[in-house]
Structure formats: structure tokens, C-alpha cells
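User: Can you fold this complex?
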Amino acid sequence: MALIVHKYGGTSMGSPERIKNVAKRVAKWARAGHQMVVVPSAMSGETNRLLALAKELAPAKETQSYMRELDMLASTGEQASSALLAIALQSEGMDSVSYAGWQVPIRTDSAFTKARIESIEDDRVRADLNAGRVVIITGFQGVDESRNITTLGRGGSDTSAVAVAAALKADECLIYTDVDGVYTTDPRVVPEARRLKTVSFEEMLEMASLGSKVLQIRSVEFAGKYKVPLRVLSSFTPWDINIQEEAKSGTLITFEEDTQMEQAVVSGIAFNRDEAKISIIGVPDKPGIAYQILGAVAEGNIEVDMIIQNIGKDGHTDFSFTVHRNDYARAMDLLKVKVLPTLGSTEAIGDTKICKVSIVGIGMRSHVGIASKMFRTLSEEGINIQMISTSEIKTSVVIDEKYMELAVRSLHKAFDLEQVQA
Amino acid sequence: MALIVHKYGGTSMGSPERIKNVAKRVAKWARAGHQMVVVPSAMSGETNRLLALAKELAPAKETQSYMRELDMLASTGEQASSALLAIALQSEGMDSVSYAGWQVPIRTDSAFTKARIESIEDDRVRADLNAGRVVIITGFQGVDESRNITTLGRGGSDTSAVAVAAALKADECLIYTDVDGVYTTDPRVVPEARRLKTVSFEEMLEMASLGSKVLQIRSVEFAGKYKVPLRVLSSFTPWDINIQEEAKSGTLITFEEDTQMEQAVVSGIAFNRDEAKISIIGVPDKPGIAYQILGAVAEGNIEVDMIIQNIGKDGHTDFSFTVHRNDYARAMDLLKVKVLPTLGSTEAIGDTKICKVSIVGIGMRSHVGIASKMFRTLSEEGINIQMISTSEIKTSVVIDEKYMELAVRSLHKAFDLEQVQA
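Assistant: Here's the predicted assembly.
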């Protein structure tokens, strides 16, 4: 008997018929002797419907008070779907109960619309599990110390599921989604893309952060921190698929170093076009400049991704960074009003027509020639590289967004990713 | 400066446009210097939409676990509308915050789908009011001692509003609804029906219990118990109507005995066709019979309204009572299986084609001839009376439902209710 956490996305919960199928699948696992906790997302379309209503009424300024109400509003989607799943399980003859985040409670900080989980109490859930109940816990939400409802940001249900699995020391957390696992790259761009049977936690972290939308990045961080065995698998297999077969399907995110040794060095190509590039030209090359620029951006609550500072000449340097495209206009305003006047710099140049393409793989830095192979491949396709950043397990480049598909396909081929995994 | 509670029904909250109008109206009251608490219902149609989803998934048996999930589900409607109203108020430049029942908290018992309010903590709300915030509190719901969400039953938002007004010792509770007050009877049946400027709490209680659907009966009980000045008024007046005029519109439910003296003895005609009649023929006329019959019915959780026991002859009597039509079939089964065999009575006769018509008025019993005038009026129209029951302030008769409109119109005219109120 194991303690298993299932997480189902909005598509899987999209209609009463689909909820019934989820209930049947969960009941199958429970009848096989497992203690089951399920974290569902809101029914597909529901969160958008609610936020569209809010948008019609929204104040000009996005105050904290407004964000708080957005969380009150959006959290109802998961509360409703959780109750419906509990009801469907009862119809399957399973004793089942649903809890909103505050009822568990899942405690978070007070950063409305993007709160972070601080702790999860497990007494209530464990008592239910021991009494033979299937426990449904709303994804996406928690409660702060002042009893305000918070949400974890888009895709936060993945994080909820992993956090719940960590708190309960679950044997495995299964993320059911509309893809059947993690691929070497997006199959819509490269038809030869191949499903990975296993991927290391570190690679998954980079893939998620680099725009591979299979899992919310924070859920991967959580899984890594608490060593939660995590599997991504399809919710579109028939619910009555053989349970042993199902338990081995999808992609397992692993934490053991050993399994990595046999893998290819590059395990996937990630990409996204969510970012915009900002360059400040002619910045005085002296200590504190990076802080002066990025501190102001951070105060504006804008996340910065890549940061590049070139070697200066004549006491001046160029400073570039990328932000999410949604934050681009706000970041430019902020720089023009608050930063440029104090810098004595004359110009901030922006570009929203960029994309970021990355090769991801454990031990990349110790394998000579991986990065240069990437650069050569892009050069052979006539693609100009605008920015480069590297880490232990990835090399990312910023290029013109019109070359994105071409770059991904070329790199997928160059690194032999269509070959079957060892 | 007064502390005012507003309650808005689902129709008033039915679209973003309407929510904006509610926000403008509330902002007008706040700007006039009042401390404002608002209790909204779910957007019209939302509760039905949610319960229809539940119905598609519902188990065969309505267990407590199922009822609990229904409350988890249905309560989301008010949480969403409350957040939307807070957002709309913020757009109007008002500082505003919404609370779900559990956040206040509004404590109830654990009778899912029909919980009763036990207490309301006012610290948090009062602190917000003192800080100049408009406080929105979800109608219809509370939390039990085990941190389960409960709901108060259909129309429960009226009760929430009155209970909140009582807890905060509000100066007045204004129930905005789709009628502009309490009428002498339903204007759809009697076009000459007249709006009452005031109605006593006791009369309102009878009107509500007798099927006048303006207010949920429990909200009237609450208002009476805690002497909450309660006004029913229209939400369809323009939001920018003069506030002094608005404050005097609708119908005020009063608690002072004095104001009743000047009123006509009969203030309204109430009616409903929600009930069914059950008669048990040839019951042994001995002590304990009523309990033997109605005890079994009560154990089946079926509410009984009118109860009539005729004088017995030959040691036997006939025993009749009415139940809600929805409970009729179940009540008949229960009697046949559990009660008749032990009574030695041979027959239970049922009739679902009945209606109840009542005249309501303070001090009715002390005014000779009121009841007999009612009976004469019905007799003149050739309407046969099947059951009669009386109280201090009402006389009710059960008649064939096909005569309902005729009876109501005749009585309205006979008691001069179309005349303007003194």
C-alpha cells in the first residue's frame, strides 16, 4: 500500500463526463489498495471566465486590495471542481471529502496572485486517509496568516500537488496532463521529438523555466527540494488501463545522479517567446550600476531573466536584460522615468520580437564542445545570436523570433535527439 | 453617521454592468457618511448552474458527505460575486474588502444545505469599517466548528444580511430585491394589491411563512429576535436616486406595537400551493396518537405545517395534516409502512391539489368577526373550506387549488386592502 497524489489539469476536469472518468481512475487506484489524495485544477475555461468578469470591473490601478479580491474570485474555480470530484467519487462508492486550501490548511505568504507555500498541516488529511477516505484538495490556493485566500499563480495546481505530496511524504506524485510526458522538444515544432522515459530534476527545472509548459517551474523546484518522486503522464488513456502499465507510463523525474550517466548529454531543446529584450546604452562602468538599474525594476515587481553586461570601454558599458513581454512596457516606462535620468545614460532600446532557445542537459559544462556545436548549428542556418547565457546544465541564446522553429529543429537534429533513449 | 447593511439579490448581481450599479449605489451611501456592509447573493443563475453540475454526478443516496460537498460547491457562487463587488467598489474609488463566511467567521451548526447561524464575530469587520472600508460579506454561508463550509438554504442571503446586521448592531438592514416592497397580496394575482409602507414583524413572519416570497422566513425571525430594523426596497430604482428618498422607500418592518394601532386589522392576504394534505381515517381516539403519527413523520425529517384533529366519535377520530408537496410521496410511504400497521387504522388519504390562503393582521383574534367575514366571503364565492387553522395574527384555510386566485381576489376586496394605508 502506497500513498499516492494525483493531480488533474483543467482539461481532464472539463465536463461532468470527464470528472466521472477522473473519479473512475482514482477509484481504481484506491481499490488497488493505495491511499489517494487528488489535487484538481478548475474546470477548463473557468478561471478565464472569472478573470474576464473581474477585468470588466477592474480599477485603473492594480492595488494589493484588488489582487486580494482576484484571489478570492479565482480560487472558487478549484473549490467547485474539487467538490464535484468528491461527489463523483461518492457516486463510485468511495468515501470522499474535499478541502479548500484554507481548510487543510495550506499556509502561504501574502503575495496575492503569486503566493508561495510556507507549510502544510497534514493532520486532517492523514486522519481521513486512515479512515479510508479519498481526499480532494483544491489546487492553486492557500491561506495567509490573516486568513486571506491566496493563489499560487497560473499553473499553481502542479505546485499544490507536489507540496501536498511532500507534506504527506507521498510515495509518488502523478501529474495527469494533456501530454503523455516530457519530450526532447515541442512535438508541434519538431515532429521527430521523442518522449523521455526519465529526466533528471535539474533538467526538468531548466526545461520548465525555459518555456516547456508541461509543469509549472515552482512545482519542479518543490519536487527537487523535498525529493518527491514525480511522474508526468497522460490523462487521455482510458481510465481502466492496467494499473501496472499506467504506473510506468509518462516521464519520471528522477533525483539519482547515476541514471544520468547513461543519458545523452543534451536531453532536450526548450524555447519560449514570452520575453522582451531591453538594452541600456552608454552606462557608466562603475560599481553599483547593475543594482541601480535592476533594483528599480525589481521594486516595480518585474522579474528579470537573462542579464548581460559587456566589457566596458572609455568608462562606459552596455547593459542588457530580458523581462516577460507583459512587463515590457512597464519596465521601459520605469527606466525612462526613474533610472536613465540618474545614470546619465541617454538611451534604452527595447525589442519584443525575440525568442530564447536553450539546449538542456546534465553535465553539459564538463562536456567540451556542446555549446560551440550549438553556435555552429545556428550559424550554419544563418541565425544571428543576440545574447548568450550558460549554466551547469543549459546554454541559452536569444535570437530573432522569426527563426525560432528553424533553430529548434536544427538543434534537435544536430544533437541526435530523435534517437531512442538509452 | 449610521452603520447600514445592504443586501442585494442575484438579479441585482446578474452581470458586470449590474454589479457596477450596485457599487455606485453603495458608494453613494458610503459617501453620505455611512459605514457600509454589503451582503450579495450569487450572480443570478450561478447557484442553479453549480447544482446542475452536481446533479449530473450525484450518488444515488443523499448522504451527509454529499450534502457537505454541495455546500462546498454552492458557496463558491457568493464568494465570486462578493469579490466582484469589492472590485467594482475599488473602481469607484472606495476601499473595499470581501469576506467569505468562514473568514468573518459566521459560525453555524453542521446541518449541511440548511445550517443555522450560531454566532458572528464582528472584530474583523468592525476594524475594516473603522478604517473606512466598505465590507462585503458573502451571503448564504458559514462555517461549522470542524471548519466545514455550510450553507443556509435557498434564500439564505437574506438571513446572512440580517444576522450580520444584528451582530454589528446596524442601524438598518436594507434588503434590495426585485419587488419594491411588501404588498397586501401578490400583484400578479390581484392588480389592485397595494404596497405597505410599514408592516409589523409578526405580520411579516406570517406572510413569509405563508408563501409571500419577498423575504426568507428565517431572516424575518432573526430580525424579530434581535430587533433589526429591516427595510425591503427595489434594486431597480436608478442608483443615483436621492438618498433621503431612497431611505424612505419600500416597506419597513417594524417592531413597535404603537404603529400597529392605526393600521387596518387585516394587512395582507398570503397564499401558497406548495403543500399537500394527508388525512388518516378512523384513528383510535386515545392519548399519544398525534405523537405516534407525527413522530414518525418528523423522524423522516419531514416538516408538518397545519395539523387538524377532529372530535372523535365511537372512539375513533380523523387526523389531517399538511406537508410540503416535495415530501408528500415520502410521507405517504412512511405512513403506510410504519404508522398505519401499528394504528389499526385502515386508510391514509392524500390530496396534492390544495392551496392555503391566509388573512394576516395584528390583533386579529381580538377583533370579533374577522374570521367569520373570511369564511362568509369564501362561501359567497362557492368555495369549500377543507381545513382551518388560526393564530394570534392569521387565519388560514385550505381549499381546492383551482379556487386560489378567486379566493385571494375576493378576500383582498372584502377587507378593503386596495385602500390607501392610514
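Chain B has 13 helices and 20 strands. The two ends of chain B are 31 Å apart (CA to CA).
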